[in-house]
Amino acid sequence: MDYLEEMAKYQKTEKEKEFGSDFLKTQEVEDYEFWDEIEIGKETETEVPIKFEVKAEDMMAYAEGVPDDNPLFYDEEYAKKCGHDGLVAHPLFGTQVLFFVLRKGHGSWLRTPGSRNPGQVMEWYDPIRVGDVLSLKQRGYDKWIKRGKYYMRYLAEVYDQNGTLKCRLFTTLILPKTRADVLRFVKGEHALEA
Amino acid sequence: MADRLTFDSVDCGDVLPEVKQENTQELTWKHAVASLDYNPVHTHPEWCKTAQVFGLPVPVMHGNQTMSLMCKVITDWAYPVGGRMKRIEIKLIKPVPVGSTCTYGGAVTEKHPLGKGEDFVTVEVWAKNQDGEQVGIGTAQVRLPK
């Protein structure tokens, strides 16, 4: 059984079943943004067209995948007794939202084979609740070279259907420098200078 | 610490209960499914043998999974009394290969009595591997009830 079939065994929610799990499809990778093609200092703001309708199963699935068995993430009544206004989303639930909506084009460098995660910054403003319809606005925030590594940072803001800001994520990765480097990684070759 | 956790009951230096978690390939696959981050550096053992993104021939845990478990230290502590995270900044220091067992912890370092429902504490959080090496460090701001 290959790795994609292994993972398919764990896909339970509607979104998990619908989402493509092969990040090495060459055509999809060709549609990504690449580090050296994004102009340094350029700031763009784009509202991503795909929305994320939050279901309880999405929130529970993220907590289960941490794994985090805190009943706040699974039991609405317990969460209310603890002073929350409903089922609680795990603080990093926004990760699932980002990957769901950023499939190609602007911001899709998040999926790049060969990328490395140096750490992240997140800010929360309003709880994500079941029934929210989330949309994403993002802009290129910074890119830099440090010790021969190529860093990219976007500021992603998640809003609900009422325009309420839910959270801000300063998403940062160390990326392969060029499209050619990424395509070498797709073939399973090592293509990092540092 | 007092029985009922509140902003007033917390002191700088308070240590939060630790979380320990073994990381297996199965767990990493489950996290890939839950986060929708199917990057092969986490999910594809054969690809990792040659691609060696981190100089390692094996898959590594998602950085955001490490961060999620660092957050668990805080959510286990503060969320049952209605606390909420306000901000977190985490630096990931070393990759965590599949098969590692990590421990996650934190301690209160600052209190910010701003009033008007804006009180928060700062918690320094950390993650260490089975050899005691830090794999992640960070700072979290957490709102606590009065």
Average pLDDT for all residues of chain A: 92
CATH topology of chain A: Thiol Ester Dehydrase, Chain A
Structural class of chain A: alpha+beta
Query: What is the CATH fold-level name of the domain at 15-23 and 60-143 in chain B?
Result: Thiol Ester Dehydrase, Chain A
Instruction: Examine the secondary-structure arrangement and name the CATH architecture of the domain at 15-23 and 60-143 in chain B.
Output: Roll
Low-confidence stretches of chain A: none
Integer-rounded radius of gyration of chain B: 17 Å
CATH class of the domain at 15-23 and 60-143 in chain B: Alpha Beta
Number of strands of chain B: 5
Name the strands of the widest sheet of chain B in spatial order: 1-3-4-5-2
Kindly report the greatest chain-chain contact and the residue count on each side.
A-B, 53 and 54 residues
Query: Helix-strand pattern of chain A, N to C?
Result: HHHEEHHHEEEEH
**How much beta of chain A, percentage-wise?**
15-25%
CATH architecture of chain A: Roll
Note the total helix count of chain B: 4
Which value, in Å, is the CA radius of gyration of chain A?
18 Å
